[in-house]
Amino acid sequence: MNLVLLATVVSVILAPHAAAERKVMTWNVGGATRRAIVYSPSKIAGKAPLVFSFHGHGDTAQNFEGVGLQNAWPEAVIVYPQGLASSRDGEPGWQNEPGMDGDRDLKLVDQAIAELHKMFPIDDRRIYATGFSNGARFTYLLWAVRPKVFAAFGPVAGMLAPSLTLNEPKPVVHIAGQQDRTNAFAVQVQSIEMAKRVNGVSGNGESCGHDCMLYVGKGAPVMTMIHPGGHIYPEGTSELIVRFFKQHALGQ
């Protein structure tokens, strides 16, 4: 979703960046060289949160870093991994289900966390995942299969694979466009409703800003930002996700 993403984040790309150090890191994962753009914290405040941000199908980490999570959360380690060529069409992307492509992307995340621990004082209670489109689908997969690793999730314009289910309550903020034709809005709503059931929340929710609703109850919260647009990463999304992530840690 390269062109759509460029059109929606150009204002962020042109904004002044925080003075975070940017590195391209590589790891050997299952015999394949995996790359990620990693921003170290520009503000030191004890142990650092860790945020994985996954680009959409056909996009690149270099383009997707323009969403500016490193500016929105300068105290965090921000990681933009690069997807590998898809068996579907050769474009870079992420697995949507367990076992797909030999679990190459789940293995990447596991190894990246271990390697980043050697470089940064990572706070294991504050590890997060977000992503756009195919990256959002992978974010939901991480919720399904790695719920004890991540404190909260932030899928944008994506959904859980139909063959999977969610079993452990986790805080989630889901951003979706009512005119999304790439990942149909109605299917995204099904994932949101599953998240509500698993998290033990119900009712009409309460407003948390423009197009934003917060659902709370006996379990983990569900926040949604439902906008009238299509398959885009709307302005202000990174800031919304960071505000939500900051409120949640493992064990709360």
Highlighted features:
globular, single chain, 7 helices, alpha/beta, 29% helix, two-stranded antiparallel sheet
Summary of the model, kept short:
The chain is α/β, with parallel strands linked by helices and 252 residues long.
Overview of the molecule:
There is one protein chain. The chain is globular and about 45 Å long. It starts with a helix and ends in a 6-residue tail after the last helix. It is of the alpha/beta class and 252 residues long. 29% of the residues lie in helices and 27% in strands. Strand 1 (22-29) and strand 2 (32-39) form a beta hairpin.
The class by helix and strand makeup works out as alpha/beta
Helix fraction? 25-40%
Total count of strands? 12
Largest sheet: 10 strands, mixed
Q: Which term fits the overall shape? A: globular
Number of helices: 7
Using only C-alpha atoms, the radius of gyration works out to 17 Å
Q: SSE string, helix = H, strand = E?
A: HEEEHHEEEHEHEEHEEEH
**What's the mean pLDDT score?**
91
Low-confidence stretches: 1-18
Q: Can you list the strand order of the major beta sheet?
A: 1-2-4-3-7-8-9-12-11-10
Q: Could you tell me the strand content as a percent range?
A: 25-35%
Distance between the termini: 35 Å
